Amino acid sequence: MDSKYNLIGNNKLNITKFKIKPKPTPVLFSKKNGPPSPKKIKLNENESNKSSYMNGNNKFKISIQEQRTKLPVYDKKNKLLDLIRRNNTLIIMGETGSGKTTQIPQYINAAKLQNEGRIGITQPRRVAAVSIAMRVAQEYGNGQQVGDTVGYTVRFEDVTSKRTKIKYLTDGMLLREAMFDSLLMEYTVIILDEAHERTIHTDVLFGIVKTAQKVREAKNFAPLKILIMSATMDVDHFSKYFNDCQAVYLEGRTYPVNIFHTVRPHDDYQTACVATFFKIHREAPANQDVLIFLTGQEEIEAVAHQIRLLGKDPEVEGPPIRVCTLYAAQPSTQQMSVFNPSPENMRKVIVSTNIAETSVTITGIKYIIDCGMVKARTYHPATGLELLKVQRISQEQAWQRTGRAGRESEGTCYRLYTRSQFEMMQKSTIPEIQRANLTSVALQLLALDIHALFFDFMDKPPEDAITAAFEQLKLLGAIDSVESTALTPLGEQMVKFPLDPRFSKILLSAHNFGCLEEVLTVVSLLSVESILLSPPNKKEQANSVRQKFFSAFGDHVTLLNIYREFSNVGQNMRGWCHEHYINMRNILQAREVRCQLEDICRKSGMTISSCGSQMDQVRKCLLTGLFMNVAELHRDRQYITLDKRQVVSIHPSSVLHGQQPHFILFTEVVQTTKCYLRLLSTVDSDWLYEIAPDYMRTHSIKCTKDS
Ligand code: CDP
Ligand code: MG
Predict the structure, then answer these.
(1) Which one of 220, 379, 407, 513 counts the least CB within 10 Å of its CB?
(2) For the Helicase C-terminal domain, which residue ranges apply (predicted)?
């Protein structure tokens, strides 16, 4: 392998130029650059003689049952079962892809260790819960469908039945279930998987299952077995929290991975991804697949599009390319296609979010391209802003990504960052609970009669974040005072919705404004990934055809207009979505979410009334939950948030971009070069005093309307 090579393309990859004549540019990777030899993923000597079973062309020839017996976890089956039998709590660590998630629940079920109860396995992401359940049902064979022995439950979707023994679910779902039954009596075995990710929900579940286990034992109820599974993690820390429980390490089969860093930093990592992919594509034999790590749907679709486009160019050397994408908002069938081996003489490239880091394993991967970034939600109690921010990954994540290339044989990883950038990354990822808005968690814990300040967290969140959460709950009317351990009747209603408390509040306020019909739609559309498609080369076209939906009131009403027309198109849904650049699967998902939210509303005795064309009602209603998200235009033409006086700007994707309404309500903040507000509505300052009088006592506005 060359230690250096030139890449095709430059920072602004110009497709046309590329098509005519690929020009070498000074984009370089180096292994030698910087300190010596990168860490290699070690080969497990004991297993080196075994065939690299799914490697290259052999991968089509092995039956699904045979595949199971080749997994590293298979040899340890009896030992594992024995340990599980003997321990009420057990930590199981193992390399990604060793078979923990798919096999261990099946072993437990075969040995009937769960007795009369169910085995619940949590996943931080819905994509993983769904795709793994499908895979495991397939492994059961005998015409078993998902929802029979194996099922899954994710927000807004429950595919289980009375027959279900093994239930994959998101950690958020299990937490919701805990609110209705804190002892989780449905389960006799709970596996908290991907524990190293330390998502906020998993962290809260640690405490919940620990208590449930203790209480069940004290009350002589069916015992609860707890398994904590993860890739690599700080075992001591985990073990100590779980009363010094035992930990077992499953050695996986891994092979060395060659690692390359770029010689200089690349801010435009999307372009660098495409260029690096084609460099690999020209040189590597077919059937050596490539996995690209990017941060989110938009980016992934853009890069996938470019690769598809360039791949069709007759001048581009290499085998035919099959491009797959993997991100949260995809429908399950499409997600599953990622796992299908491609026909011989083809190259599969998977463009994925960090989901492919540890939660799902795809066979046949020989090359990794790691952009070095991840999209994460961060909350700053001091500024009161919760940001969706693309940020650097941790070194731990970088190693996980790298390791994906060495599963079946030696691999290569191209890191689109320099060695010194790598060295500046944080060693490990900070638990989400220490960097997220805790309002939802505080509310959920209150529903369990627990005050977040006194909860047994593995790592305590900062106290000011907890205080801020209680202040928000008070302003939303879910509690009477910040010391309160009891919910108000409104708070109890809020808990019924699988939503952020602010959005539950909006739905619950709708009867005051007679617009539940409309806000159900808006909240549903905000609960899914964007329904608006803006292909990079057709942005203007998309905007012009959607112009008729645009509302001077902002994005929420615009979305509502789109949904209203969509609901009336009848048969030709696909054609209509195509014509208007609407992401059909996302809008269909929003429709599904809407049905379920409507169902909860009806069950709570709410009337579904419509305000017709009175959009003031909708915007006022939105303000009941989002009054803390208002920005005001100042004399210097700058927007400043009322809450913590942050300077912010309107995101270019907003229909209000280029206009300067006095007051805007925002749904989301994204930080790139600046703090941008997304999904906006214009609001009237008088409404603020009318709707959130308590809040406005401490948050005065600076300008008068006429200034
Ligand atoms: O949990 P862990 O990372 O240890 O491994 P796993 O998710 O149980 O995956 C075990 C094996 O099943 C891997 O080799 C995957 O390639 C395979 N698998 C698959 O082929 N299709 C899926 N949908 C899920 C897993
Ligand atoms: Mg797993």
Answers:
(1) 220
(2) 272-449
Residue nearest to atom 22 of ligand 1 (CA): 135
Q: How many angstroms separate the alpha carbon of residue 493 from the centre of ligand 2? A: 35
Burial of 123 (0-12, 13-18, 19+ CB in 10 A): buried
| pLDDT confidence band for 402 (50 / 70 / 90) | very high
Q: Which two tokens stand for residue 242?
A: 């779980």
Topology agreement, domain 10-38+254-429 and domain 51-250: yes
Composition of the chain by helix, strand, coil, percent to 5: 40, 20, 40
CA of 150 to the centre of ligand 2 (A): 16
Helices (H) and strands (E) in the chain, counts: 27, 23
The dihedral through the CA atoms of 530, 536, 537, 541 has a sign that is positive
- Sheet containing 347-352: give its strands across: 4-8, 24-30, 257-262, 411-415, 365-370, 289-293, 347-352, 321-326
For residue 153, how many other CB atoms are within 10 A of its CB? 23
- What is the DSSP secondary structure assignment for residue 582, as one 8-state letter? B
CATH architecture of 10-38+254-429: 3-Layer(aba) Sandwich (3.40)
Has residue 680 got a pLDDT over 90? yes
Q: Which atom of ligand 1 is nearest to the CA of 363?
A: 16
CA 373 to chain centre: 14
Question: Pocket residues for ligand 1 (CB within 6 Å)?
Answer: 71, 94, 96-103, 131-132, 135, 339, 361, 363
Q: How far apart are CA 572 and CA 116, in angstroms?
A: 48
- Contact of 666 with 502, CB cutoff 8 Å: no
Torsion of CA 425, 426, 432, 438, to 10 degrees: -100
- Which contacts of 15-23 are long-range, i.e. CB under 8 A and separated by 24 or more positions? 15/306, 15/309, 15/310, 18/310, 19/310, 19/313, 19/315, 22/315
Of 142, 191, 186, 139, residue with least CA distance to 164: 186
Strands, DSSP E only, in 84-165? 89-94, 118-123, 150-154, 157-159
Token pair belonging to 379: 């909350």
What was the ipTM of the complex prediction? Answer: 0.98
Q: Residue 97: helix, strand or coil by DSSP?
A: coil
What ligand is nearest to the CA atom of residue 64?
A: 1
Q: Which CATH class is domain 51-250?
A: alpha beta
The whole-angstrom separation of Cα 572 and Cα 558 is 21
pLDDT of 325-376, one tens digit each?
A: 998 777 666 777 888 888 888 999 999 999 888 888 888 899 999 999 999 8
Pairing of strands 4-8, 24-30: antiparallel
Query: What are 350-360's pLDDT values in tens digits?
Result: 999 998 888 88
Give tens-digit pLDDT for 55-89. Answer: 333 444 578 899 899 898 999 999 999 999 999 99
571 burial via Cβ count (<10 Å: 0-12, 13-18, 19+): exposed
Nearest atom, ligand 1, residue 134 CA: 23
> Separation of 305 CA from ligand 1 center, angstroms?
27
Q: Kindly state the helix (H) or strand (E) to which residue 549 belongs, with its residue range.
A: none
DSSP string, 30-66: ESSSSSS-PPPPPP-GGGTTS--TT-GGGGGSS-HHH
pLDDT at 35 over 80: no
Q: Where are the domains of the chain?
A: 10-38+254-429, 51-250, 627-698
Whose CA is closest to atom 10 on ligand 1?
A: 99
How is residue 691 written in tokens? 């709707």
Q: Which atom of ligand 1 is nearest to the CA of 250?
A: 4
